[in-house]
Write a structure and sequence with these properties.
InterPro entries: HicA_mRNA_interferase (IPR012933). This protein has 88 residues and is of the alpha+beta class. The chain has helices at 16-25, 64-78, 82-85, and strands spanning 6-7, 14-15, 29-30, 38-42, 51-54, 61-62, 86-87.
């Protein structure tokens, strides 16, 4: 199966489930039973801090503007480079 990527260049939405796959492929875990729309992701390195994203509702589609914010937050928290992580 091909690795899931986030495409921030074409301004296409992404389903929340695809974002979960994207994070799991990078070694993150999360609690799917957490209350509310906040989802805490725990990085593979226990020394790194966790990151929280909010699942959109009522429709679980991540719109392009939200994906761009997610990408910025991942870069800020973990130093991830968009060139390495997101489709161009």
């Amino acid at each position: 199966m091909a690795e899931q990527t986030i495409d921030v260049s074409t301004r296409r939405p992404m389903r929340w489930e695809a974002f979960l796959i994207f994070m799991r492929e990078r070694g993150f875990t999360y609690d799917p039973n957490a209350a509310g729309s906040s989802v805490h992701f725990y990085p593979p390195n226990e020394n790194d801090r966790s990151i929280t994203f909010y699942k959109p509702h009522p429709d679980s589609t991540l719109q392009p503007v939200m994906l761009k914010e997610f990408a910025k937050k991942l870069k800020r928290y973990y130093g991830w480079d968009e060139e390495d992580l997101f489709m161009r």
